């Protein structure tokens, strides 16, 4: 059977350079006719993930030429005001811990809400009507702005506020990390997962020295633990979701 025609809509992927956003970028490239990316500099304690963004995009285009034709412009927005408002383990040098409110102190209040608002404004200008983000409430750190209901409500608000349909897609929302590895295996096979292992970055501490079987990272922070455990859970089965 011939390959299905791509969805003609224009998508904008919230792309950080990490595993989840790379999975979402591959998912969007497999589905939509035109895909652009947007990243955010919000005063992170390290810039390694931002530095990975260009490397990952270039590697995807080089290794998957059928996606390269669909991959459009990249945008990096300056949201350092968010870092100035936040006092978290992602925006300052402090140990990762659980705060008094029960959330990890890696939670940056309002981050995803602001990201989607700025992404929607950019999408409107660029003629895109689909926003794609890697938020998940299966294997995640409990952030309230990652929850499905939050993003469904935000989709309604964005569409009303722009007086134009703005769809928020979260393809990882109900997947475990093991299923995320399986998803990228289905989309791009061993080559895509090798690219994710080598070039993406998730570690909260910015550790890039050691390359583990699941990728670079300190191996101890919550982000590394989720990534490692998901990889180990997926690896023996090798099954797709």
Automatic annotation (TrEMBL):
<feature type="binding site">
    <location>
        <position position="203"/>
    </location>
    <ligand>
        <name>Zn(2+)</name>
    </ligand>
</feature>
<feature type="binding site">
    <location>
        <position position="218"/>
    </location>
    <ligand>
        <name>Zn(2+)</name>
    </ligand>
</feature>
<dbReference type="GO" id="GO:0008270">
    <property type="term" value="F:zinc ion binding"/>
</dbReference>
<feature type="binding site">
    <location>
        <position position="221"/>
    </location>
    <ligand>
        <name>Zn(2+)</name>
    </ligand>
</feature>
<keyword id="KW-0067">ATP-binding</keyword>
<comment type="similarity">
    <text>Belongs to the QueC family.</text>
</comment>
<dbReference type="GO" id="GO:0008616">
    <property type="term" value="P:tRNA queuosine(34) biosynthetic process"/>
</dbReference>
<dbReference type="GO" id="GO:0005524">
    <property type="term" value="F:ATP binding"/>
</dbReference>
<comment type="function">
    <text>Catalyzes the ATP-dependent conversion of 7-carboxy-7-deazaguanine (CDG) to 7-cyano-7-deazaguanine (preQ(0)).</text>
</comment>
<protein>
    <recommendedName>
        <fullName>7-cyano-7-deazaguanine synthase</fullName>
        <ecNumber>6.3.4.20</ecNumber>
    </recommendedName>
</protein>
<feature type="binding site">
    <location>
        <position position="224"/>
    </location>
    <ligand>
        <name>Zn(2+)</name>
    </ligand>
</feature>
<keyword id="KW-0436">Ligase</keyword>
<dbReference type="InterPro" id="IPR014729">
    <property type="entry name" value="Rossmann-like_a/b/a_fold"/>
</dbReference>
<keyword id="KW-0547">Nucleotide-binding</keyword>
<keyword id="KW-0671">Queuosine biosynthesis</keyword>
<feature type="binding site">
    <location>
        <begin position="15"/>
        <end position="25"/>
    </location>
    <ligand>
        <name>ATP</name>
    </ligand>
</feature>
<dbReference type="GO" id="GO:0016879">
    <property type="term" value="F:ligase activity, forming carbon-nitrogen bonds"/>
</dbReference>
<dbReference type="InterPro" id="IPR018317">
    <property type="entry name" value="QueC"/>
</dbReference>
<comment type="pathway">
    <text>Purine metabolism; 7-cyano-7-deazaguanine biosynthesis.</text>
</comment>
<dbReference type="Pfam" id="PF06508">
    <property type="entry name" value="QueC"/>
</dbReference>
<keyword id="KW-0479">Metal-binding</keyword>
<keyword id="KW-0862">Zinc</keyword>
